[in-house]
């Protein structure tokens, strides 16, 4: 734990449910685990993702404490990010880094909703409107949401296997 003003911020520890890199190589989707050292900020995630970028970009999929997810996508020097619930930035360092990366003001307790690029994977098969609907569903856990994303992009079974998701 680290203190920041009067708000207790949780630094990466065993609260990360999963942290995967998804990337296309030889025309097929592959998954790899992201090192713990990359799970601090958007910048460290992007740096860790670059080792997976085979020319078509790479996507980090991070689920935190069954509460929210972070997507970071790198394609060459470009980095894009999506946080499923902006209020996570009030308690979690990795979520706060997304808000900072996006240049947003600190959220208030009642600012629920996503922050960032809802079209982060639109060119891969999941449009921004669909992503918006998905992250607005407060009944779903992060692994369920990201399983849906993975299925729409074409690597759902591999994702489900990697995170131990058994579906509804």
TrEMBL record:
It comes from the Bacteria. InterPro entries: tRNA_Adeno_NH3ase_assoc_put. This is tRNA adenosine deaminase. The lineage of its organism: Bacteria, Bacillati, Actinomycetota, Actinomycetes, Propionibacteriales.
């Amino acid at each position: 734990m680290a203190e920041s003003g009067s708000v207790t911020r949780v630094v990466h520890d065993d609260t990360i449910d999963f942290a995967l890199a998804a990337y296309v190589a030889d025309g097929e989707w592959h998954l790899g685990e992201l090192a713990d050292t990359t799970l601090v900020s958007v910048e460290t995630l992007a740096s860790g993702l670059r080792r997976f970028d085979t020319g078509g970009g790479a996507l980090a999929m991070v689920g935190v404490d069954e509460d929210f997810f972070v997507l970071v996508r790198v394609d060459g020097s470009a980095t894009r990010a999506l946080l499923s619930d902006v209020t996570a930035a009030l308690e979690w360092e990795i979520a706060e880094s997304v808000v900072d990366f996006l240049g947003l003001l600190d959220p208030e307790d009642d600012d629920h909703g996503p922050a960032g690029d809802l079209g982060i994977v639109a060119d891969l098969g999941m449009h921004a409107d669909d992503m918006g609907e998905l992250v607005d569903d407060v009944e779903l856990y992060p692994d369920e949401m990201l399983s849906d994303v993975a299925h729409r992009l074409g690597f759902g079974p591999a994702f489900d296997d990697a995170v131990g998701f058994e579906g509804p």
